[in-house]
Amino acid sequence: MNNTIKIISVYPNFLNKGGAQDVALQLAEKLNEEVMPVVLTETHFAEIVPDYWNRAKFVSFGWKAVRELANDNTVFLSHHRKSTSLLLLFSFLLRKKLHIVHVAHNTFNNLRFFSFFPKTVVAVSNGVKENLINYFHVPASHIIVVFNGIKDFRNDRNVKADKSEIHILLSGRICTVKQQVEIVRQTRGKLAAHIHIFFAGTGSDLEVLKKEIENESQYHYIGFVDIEENLNRYDYVCLFSQKEGLGLSLIEGCMFGKPLITNNLSAVLDVNEAGETGFVFPDFGSLIQGLNNLPMPYSEEYRKLSLNARLKYEKVFTEERMIKKYKEIIFA
């Protein structure tokens, strides 16, 4: 293969903004810099998030589109196991080998016997790789770990001035898996007065979360947040999910030099190193104790964690590094 290759990205759902959607479009743009990228999706154009409209040519995913686009110079970069499985079926029916690269963004424990993978699979974290091997029985030799990378937009705008409180940001889809509601229930009445947790995003548990924190002074719902403009308002970035693929909010935290607070999922430990870039708490009991003993933003310990977080971003999670890895895989 060579640089005449056209990369077709595939992801079924652009009804909402999310990490997988952002990475799918990011790769579509960066791997097709000279032309408008084509993205195959199951989402009707009118229902696609408006912020995404001008970033790609969205085409309905199906037999007709794949048959028209498939040739020796096309690589399908598929970001969903359902789409990948259908592409492999289309390849069989077309009686021609489609060039397919599957990008695994998360861990799963269902539909094992209905999920099929090509010989080239990218896992966004070591935790995702372990899941592919242990649950889906994908050969380790077929899997390459490529960490997500994001463009550096760190700035010094809107820096938090008050150093007497600790403000913790938990940004992401508000749902059972991300555990925002459970965090409130487990920590309510147990946090020191200077600890404040801010929840950003939306999702199926939003109304439950709002009700839980309605009369609380240490928990805050702030809606959608422009990370570039507002991350400096917070001291720490937290993610305490039941499962994760990698956690783009943690990478954004590292970019801004924000120490991280996580549990000990394999995937998040690719980003957060205990005592180096932040704190790792295996359960809610240790989380409560840890939150109440976080270093204050003006302390030397905080400064060290902040510097290490930024360094981790620069070494591991830049956009340039990610794109280079994908080009090595696709154009090999």
UniProtKB/TrEMBL annotation:
It comes from the Bacteria. The keyword Transferase applies. Keywords: Transferase. Pfam families: Glyco_transf_4, Glycos_transf_1. Gene3D superfamilies: Glycogen Phosphorylase B (3.40.50.2000). SUPFAM superfamilies: UDP-Glycosyltransferase/glycogen phosphorylase. One of its GO terms (molecular function) is glycosyltransferase activity. Residues 158-283 form the Glycosyl transferase family domain. Residues 45-150 form the Glycosyltransferase subfamily 4-like N-terminal domain. This is Glycosyltransferase, group 1 family protein.
